[in-house]
Each structure stands twice: as C-alpha cells, then as structure tokens.
Fold this sequence. Notes:
By secondary structure, the chain is mainly alpha-helical. The chain has a domain at about 65-165. Helices cover about 50% and strands about 0% of the residues.
Amino acid sequence: xxxxxxxxxxxxxxxxxxxxxxxxxxxxxxxxxxxxxxxxxxxxxxxxxxxxxxxxxxxxxxxxxxxxxxxxxxxxxxxxxxxxxxxxxxxxxxxxxxxxxxxxxxxxxxxxxxxxxxxxxxxxxxxxxxxxxxxxxxxxxxxxxxxxxxxxxxxxxxxxxxxxxx
Length: 166
C-alpha cells in the first residue's frame, strides 16, 4: 500500500513546502483506519532522492549480497518451521508462537512497553513488531532478538505516531 503524506503530496518533503492548511494533514491521514494500519507490518516514509545523491559515486551494497542475506534468513525460517506444515515464515506465526520464538530480554520488554504506551499500539501491533524484529534478527544471522532489532522494528511503525503529521 502506498499513500501521499497529504493532499498536496509535499508534507515532510526536503525541498518543497506543503501548502495544506493546519489540521489538513492529520485529517487526510486519519482516513486510513487504525485497524487497517495494524495489519501493515512496515510503515516507511520515502522522501525523494535529490540529484547529488543519485549521481554520487558512493558505492552501495550490491544487490547480490542483499539477496544472499535474504536467502539465508529464509533458510533460517524454513528450518525453524520445518515441523509445521502451515507455517513457512515469521509473518505466519500465531500469537502463541510469537511468545515462544520472539523472546526478548528485560531491556527489550521495557523498550516495547514504552513504545506501546507512547504510540498507543494494539496487541496486534505488538505481535507484528515482534515478528518484524525476529525477521531483522534473522537477516543479521542472530539467534536472539536483540534490542537493536526491536528498535528497528518499532521504527517501522511511523504511521502509528501521532506526531508524524503534526
């Protein structure tokens, strides 16, 4: 799913000013219901890339290396769910499986508790954050869900933030 951040399309744009009046951005975004947002695992704000970045000679990570990392993560998940015919990936885990497979330490529990309270997240969002954190840990070839994996997963809930649109 994709959407513009506001009716004019320039809210949070690095080079252009948003011409929408006060409250218009929040009203525009509030058309996306909370239950629908709950069902979207990753909320990512994508801003335009300026010419100097596009034309930069800076080397980026090669697609082949990214593909290898994803394939390794998928293999980890295949092995994790080998005995379960109906589950093939972290996203398909039940709530009970999430509690068993996505265990976090006390520091992680404190972080997610703070995020839940600050962002007003639902139980569904909690489970989705843990599933995404487990996937991030798999991509990092980590047996445990570490606090940095959890923090990154929480970061992907940007549309849940009241402060995002003013």
